[in-house]
Amino acid sequence: QVQLTESGGGLVQAGDSLRLSCAASGRTFSTSAMGWFRQAPGKEREFVAGIRWTVGIIYYADSVKGRFTISRDNAKNTVDLRMNSLKPEDTAVYYCALTARYYSSSYDYTRPGPYTNWGQGTQVTVSS
User: Fold this and answer.
1) pLDDT of 45-88, one tens digit each?
2) How far is it, in rounded angstroms, from Cα 66 to Cα 84?
3) Rounded to whole angstroms, what are the CA distances from 59 to 1, 12, 14, 109?
4) DSSP line for 78-91
5) Stretch 78-102: mean pLDDT
6) Residue 16 forms beta bridges with which residues?
7) Which residues pair with 96 in a beta bridge?
8) 3-class state of residue 59 by DSSP
């Protein structure tokens, strides 16, 4: 089993920055990717950023490109999401996700499908 523990989040003003962190523990040897998704009230969960665990290939949603940065620490099994220039529309519950499967070219790591484990979510609220 894999457990994901998130930290960070909170209430900030537009233009501010925040950093989210996610630590993975347990059976992580087959991890092929970790990522962040978010869900705003009344909306579907959407992809934010993802990173291939071994090769470090990174994916971003268009809405966060240039503002958010995802990074990983393989030794610590952690993934961070640095969020700059936050906007009110970034307000959502942010979820860390992990793919406890070996890499497959058939996986689309920008979609929820390949991710097998999810964190409990952390609230990010950006006031205008």
Assistant:
1) 999 999 998 898 999 999 999 999 999 998 999 999 999 999 99
2) 9
3) 26, 25, 24, 8
4) EEEEEE-S--GGG-
5) 96
6) none
7) 36
8) strand
What's the rounded mean pLDDT across residues 7-35? 93
Kindly tell me if the per-residue pLDDT of 12 is higher than 90. Answer: yes
SS3 content of the chain, % helix, strand, coil (to 5): 0, 50, 50
Amino acid, res. 23: A
**Cβ contact 98:115 at 8 Å:** yes
What one-character-per-residue DSSP string does 17-56 give? -EEEEEEEEES-TT--EEEEEEE-TTS--EEEEEEETTT-
Smallest CA-to-CA distance from 86 within 21, 7, 13 is with 13
- Residue 114: how many other CB atoms lie within 10 Å: 21
Cα 109 from Cα 37, distance rounded (Å): 11
Distance CA 108, CA 100 (A): 14
Residue 27 pLDDT > 90: no
Residue for token digits 């499967």? 101
Identify the pLDDT of residue 16.
98
The fraction of the chain above a pLDDT of 90, given in percent, is 84
